[in-house]
């Protein structure tokens, strides 16, 4: 999994739901979905469903709760992709 | 769960209960109806001397029947007074006006129910079967807000 490419893909996924444009423009692996990008919890569900669709994975409740920032999202995607293989 | 039981579990009462009857419900969707009593308070002001049902009220009817009733059904017996529900998004287009004493029918189809969020494709028709409004409505079942120690208003998100 290419890190830079995954960050770009995640950026595209969160784009429709972000409120804080500055935090989005300066997005790094440490960017927090709720506290930095100001995505509300209802839209975070859509972000997760879009991630599932993009990577063809299933995200369970436990992973959902851990998915607070770009870094944790990337880790969860990587884990789920490796489980699939 | 029986249809009457779902209505009894709704957290609304008059004058803000906008579900009269559930005619069909299953895990994929719900159909229900509501009749607009001409004495409803908002007709006095919307509009002056020309009562028309406000779009926000039509949206509320669609949300109560199409999302809240279905959500209670899907949660089955795990829904209790400890749950609170929140409307999270609406995207509705309006095609026809609804006047006092009209009866409307709401048809809702589940798009998904994941992580406590229920998103539905909802349509309202008048008695002639014409489409009144249509859209996408979503809501969440959330834990009751806890009073925070600082006395601040708890945030929904």
TrEMBL record, chain A:
UniProt xrefs under InterPro entries: ACP-like_sf
Gene3D superfamilies named in the record: ACP-like
Stated name of the protein: Acyl carrier protein
Native organism: Flavobacterium urumqiense
TrEMBL record, chain B:
Keywords: Lyase
Pfam families: FabA
Entry superkingdom: Bacteria
InterPro entries per UniProt: FabA_FabZ, HotDog_dom_sf
Cross-referenced SUPFAM superfamilies: Thioesterase/thiol ester dehydrase-isomerase
Gene Ontology molecular function: lyase activity
Name of protein: 3-hydroxyacyl-[acyl-carrier-protein] dehydratase
């Amino acid at each position: 999994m290419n890190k830079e490419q995954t960050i770009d893909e995640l950026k595209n996924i969160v784009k429709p739901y972000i409120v804080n444009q500055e935090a989005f423009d300066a997005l790094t692996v440490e960017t927090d979905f709720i506290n930095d990008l100001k995505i509300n919890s209802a839209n975070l569900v859509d972000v997760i469903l879009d991630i599932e669709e993009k990577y063809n994975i299933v995200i369970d409740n436990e992973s959902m709760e851990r998915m607070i920032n770009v870094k944790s999202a990337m880790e969860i995607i990587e884990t789920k992709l490796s489980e699939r293989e | 769960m029986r249809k009457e039981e779902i209505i009894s579990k709704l957290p609304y009462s008059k004058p803000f209960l906008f579900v009269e009857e559930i005619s069909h419900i299953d895990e994929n969707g719900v159909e229900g109806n509501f009749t607009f009593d001409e004495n409803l308070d908002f007709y006095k002001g919307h509009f002056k001397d020309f009562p028309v049902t406000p779009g926000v009220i039509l949206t509320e009817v669609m949300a109560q029947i199409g999302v809240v009733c279905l959500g209670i059904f899907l949660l089955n017996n795990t829904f209790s007074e400890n749950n609170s529900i929140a409307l999270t998004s609406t995207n509705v287009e309006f095609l026809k006006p609804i006047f006092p004493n009209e009866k409307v029918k709401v048809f809702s189809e589940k798009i998904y129910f994941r992580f406590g969020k229920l998103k539905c494709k909802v349509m309202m028709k008048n008695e002639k079967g014409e489409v009144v409004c249509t859209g996408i409505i979503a809501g969440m079942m959330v834990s009751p807000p806890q009073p925070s120690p600082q006395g601040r208003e708890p945030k929904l998100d």
